[in-house]
């Protein structure tokens, strides 16, 4: 359902909103188009040269007080304004937790405006699920607020190592992204952390290396909703940037009996069961195929050639990312 009155205290009807008009963050005029075209909840008139003006990405209430903006299932580009990951927020009786902020300052500002359109309760927690810029490079839009900024214990190091490269890459994709900056968390999670938004307890869990070496999930105890982020991909090929064996181990225990609904990092919300099974099958075939190639003495190029066509489930972006996964898996497994 779209954002609307739910009869919960100061939660308010979310009218069609312009994500720039009253933004708390000053956004360059040149970035107006990306923000308006991609993040508005209602249609805008196209102008000559407009980009993806029909790609309206609203924040949708998927469970009681849980709002998600679905990213488009594409590679990051100027045309889609980098809006490729699922981002959103959870509203408690006293405050709000934002979970991932998108790729750019503009996306973070639009997310902040979306929160304000739903409730007057303050944002108290800003959570980054991992280092990849499509998930956490909009954090600067909240930098003036007294929030608890939280991430995995490895996230500050990962941002320091990769952040400058990611910013350079974003600026190369589009000058509209050049005012983006990454923000390291002030609080980190080594194992688990429990926070409460007011009758809204959330359990944050830091995972061993899997999709990355800094994956963090959020479990909403009220609704049984697990914000799995990029530990799960729905429809779009999973991308390996951590540990293949670690990721497989994480999937074995990801869906506890208490989980009723799952927000993946990319793709549609579901109960998570089929999504997990599909991802598990792909990663298992990747592991077994690479191990067999290594055992036979095949080098990287020969392994890539052998495993080139494994798109049994018609994953989106397979041609873009499968080869990278083979290389990452080979690099890891050749040292077993």
Automatic annotation (TrEMBL):
InterPro entries: Metallo-B-lactamas, NDM-1-like, RibonucZ/Hydroxyglut_hydro, SoxH-rel_PQQ_2, TAT_signal. Residues 84-266 form the Metallo-beta-lactamase domain. Pfam families: Lactamase_B (PF00753). Belongs to the metallo-beta-lactamase superfamily. Class-B beta-lactamase family. This is Quinoprotein relay system zinc metallohydrolase 2. The lineage of its organism: Bacteria, Pseudomonadati, Pseudomonadota, Alphaproteobacteria, Hyphomicrobiales.
